[in-house]
Known about the structure:
Blueprint: H1 2-17, E1 25-29, E2 36-41, E3 43-46, E4 49-51, E5 58-60, E6 63-67, H2 68-74, E7 78-82, E8 87-92, E9 95-100, E10 105-108, E11 111-114, E12 120-122, E13 125-129, H3 131-136, E14 140-144, E15 149-153, E16 160-168, E17 171-178, E18 185-189, E19 194-200, E20 209-215, E21 218-226, E22 229-236, E23 242-247, E24 250-256, E25 270-271, E26 274-275, E27 285-292, E28 295-302, E29 309-313, E30 318-324, E31 331-334, E32 342-351, E33 354-361, E34 366-372, E35 375-381, E36 388-391, E37 397-402, E38 407-408, E39 414-415, E40 418-421, E41 427-433, E42 442-445, E43 451-459, E44 464-471, E45 476-482, E46 487-493, E47 503-507, E48 517-518, E49 521-522, H4 523-540, E50 545-547, H5 557-566, E51 571-578, E52 588-592, H6 604-619, E53 623-628, H7 633-636, E54 641-649, H8 653-659, H9 662-682
Parallel strand pairs: 3-15, 47-50, 47-51, 51-54, 52-53
Antiparallel strand pairs: 1-2, 2-5, 3-4, 5-6, 6-13, 7-8, 8-9, 9-10, 10-11, 12-13, 14-15, 16-17, 17-24, 18-19, 19-22, 20-21, 21-22, 23-24, 25-26, 27-28, 28-35, 29-30, 30-33, 31-32, 32-33, 34-35, 36-37, 37-46, 38-39, 40-41, 41-44, 42-43, 43-44, 45-46, 48-49, 52-54
Helix pairs in contact: 4-9, 6-9
Amino acid sequence: MKRVAAFILSLFLMVVFSVNVYAKSMFISFDDSSLKHYVKYFTLIVNDEELSTDVPPVLLSNTPMVPVRAVFEKLGAELAWNGNTGTMVVKYRGHEIKFTSKSRIAYLDGRRILMKMPARLVNQRLVIPLSFFGDGLGLEAEWSDQKNTVSIRVSGNFEIESMGYSIDKGLFTAIIDLTGYENYYTFRLENPDRIVVDFPGVKGPGIQKVMDVNSGSVKTLRYAQFENRLRVVFDVVGQPDYRIEEKSGDILVHIWDDRNPGDKDDDSVDRGGYHRDPPVLEGMLDVMHNINGGKDEVSILLNNYKNYNIMRLSNPDRIVIDIPGARVSTINKAISSKDSLIESIRCAQFTQNIARVVLDVKGLPQYDVKEEKGLLRLFIEKPTYRNVEYKNNGDRVCLILKGAKLTEGASQLKNLYTGSYDPTGLKYTITFPSNLANLASGVIRINDSYIDTIEIKTDGATGKTSITFNAKDKFVYHTITREVVNDTAITILKPAAKNERLVVIDAGHGGAETGAVHGGIYEKDLNLDIAIRVNNLLKEKGVKTYMIREDDSYVGLYERSYIANCLNATLFLSIHNNALGNPDYAGTMTLYLPPAKGARGFTSMRFAEIIQQHLVSTLNSIDRKIIPRPELVVLKATNMHAALAEIGFMTNQNELNKLRTPEYRQKAAVALCNAVLQALEEDD
């Protein structure tokens, strides 16, 4: 029976998404939905270079769809994304292009262009039809079903024609003859002193050309292809003044001899929003990468920096460097070496005054920082600790110890470790026999809003291992072993104050626990999608919330309840969908823990009544009533008012069809939001 169902599902996916079963395929989610679909994807090639992207080109309704950001950043464009409106604005070679999610209309310099397919959000990345690059921009755009490739090339032949210079009365002038260009950027580098001019999208020689000048302030003139741009470098003595001039189709770079400045012209040239006169652009950074002695070395070149901040982020794992007062041209650099701990380097203007450099790393490597004048160097190396994972990609912040067993039991939790705080309450240490976990030793540098560092020490002499959390605030650390996934989770929690009235939102199932599966749809995905919508609605109403999970991760049943208890939550809302052998059975029900005999005031039963009323009236679903379920862990193990909403039956085709739609899931979220607001008001 399972084989028949799988075959039918495969046929369904082939019809809907035109997937070649022999091609490379992947799971994706569309727009604001967490539901997954199976589609064909391609390798992306831009200007004859294969790109490694988080979202590759995919085939939707037999139309290749291409990630906007990945392609345009490679072409040297500037991009701005507005998540509220779902709009991407691209500035490319003097043009302004605007795309909006779910719309077939694109705007090129204000002119409407009808695309073959609407722009879509695939795994939270905007994609557009490949044909737009050819029909709309005149680029060479093609896809090969046999080779599984999508290729985009700049059809214009923008390249350097010649390079020369002259010297007159202490004034050095470089003459750069280009067949075409749209913009240029300049910045200084030190140690040694250099002036750099970059021309995005212009082709230079593959082998660096060098001209020995050795006159005045200029020692040598060098130029070559640097990633997707022509880079011209002037090796200079000291910090001489310079100015760039556009004249008769040429670019003139004037550099004055500090010892014989000559006559300086005060005329200014303003291009691309940057002032080109001295003083030169300050704070323009560049990034270099190499592997040395088994370590990845990332050098951030910056004329001057006064401060910076480095932190880790997870899902995916990355190291982020924010540099205030710096500017950067958008850079995406894939690291092809298998020996590298870095998969890619991304640079962009995070805010108007902060440049952000992101290192997409493999796992949780160690890193060190060395500060030099005009240079910030990061050394990334394999960690000395092992079997650890740090997650901080949502409300839930936790350290996962793989293969570790630090607790026993569930309803009666037994700790196999000891925990203690230092006098400040900011340092928390747990200690346990080393045979309970294979962690070795090392320091994990985090520097997020919760944790500064985590120190792991394994003492061979005593047979003890300790984990010390150096935190930025006073937290509660909940530790529990999850036998289903063979690990121990240490969750870092900030309990709510009595007047905060925290609502915990629990998306049922997750990870290895899929919940019901019907029609190719996983219950865990439906639950998460609705939970995220509820969370967003409640936050808009000013309600303090905590999401048990915000991705497809496993969380144990007792673990969910204990987290809510540690948080001092006021309400616990668990979101599920139902399944039954009878396909005709449909409707909504809400489960609750029966109140104690003689209980007065607001109860979990009343909470369930409110939820059921709002869901049934909003969804117009069959009322399956509220049902007491004293055996359910998330209801009996929580200390606050708790209820479990079963939105609909996935085994009923009509109800499943509704649940597939974002509109219906949004309706369910609105109903749950209103129910929570009413419950908080009644429980006041």
